[in-house]
Specification:
By secondary structure, this protein is α+β, with helices and mostly antiparallel strands. The chain has helices at about 5-30, 35-50, 125-145, 150-165; strands at about 55, 75, 80, 100-105, 110-120, 170, 175, 185-190, 205-210, 210-215, 220, 230, 235-240, 240-245, 250. It has one domain (about 5-250): Creatinase/methionine aminopeptidase superfamily (Creatine Amidinohydrolase).
Amino acid sequence: MVTIKTKEEIAILREGGKRLAFILQELKKAVKPGVSTDDLNALAERLAREKGDVPSLLGYRPRGAKRPYPASVCISLNNEVVHGIPNEDPKILKDGDLISFDMCLTHKGLITDSAITVPVGTVDAKAKKLIAVTEEALYAGIKSAKGDKHIGDIGFAIERAGKANHFSVVEDLCGHGVGYKVHEDPYVPNYGDRGGGGKLKPGMVLAIEPMFTEGEKNVFLGEDGYTYETVDGSRSAHFEHTIAITNGEPEILTKL
């Protein structure tokens, strides 16, 4: 069921989103060759709990999962698209890697969700373009998320940005409603048709999250039960914001 948040709830989400944006920026600052994903996970949890908040993903068990997620932040490298586990088999960052952080934060009982992809050290031109285009697609999708428009308008804008730059759109994973739970209705695909899908209504809170790859769009679920990887081993990028639908321009809640 699609939920509508009150003005008071959106105010809490706005503050939680600001706190989440701060954590992601601190994680970005900590990225350099030689750093462990386990250390980055510990940093994310410490920053969340210092302010009295809760890393929502730690212990979260999504529908169909065989076990709860064991970390505070999803950290995915290179061909890992989303939901990489940073603390069970920690990886050491290398120059030229792409690293994605995807985190949810519970503040006063309400959840925001955001993701960024950043380069480790010096990366090649194609990696820089992949990161830039995926982030641009996020903002194109957000710009299309206005009251009385449709979910398909968001996907159409994201898909167009990817294809125009010869990147593939991961279709098996998508955005979603968020707030009371980590995953709520509606699903928000990163592809679609203008005017398609459900209507966007003021008070809806959505996590919009394009995922692009350099190669094919197909992904598979790894043996750990959480990490999605590209089938062809190509690199990927992932960006995400939690937004509130209004009567006018959408509000980005996960920003400083």
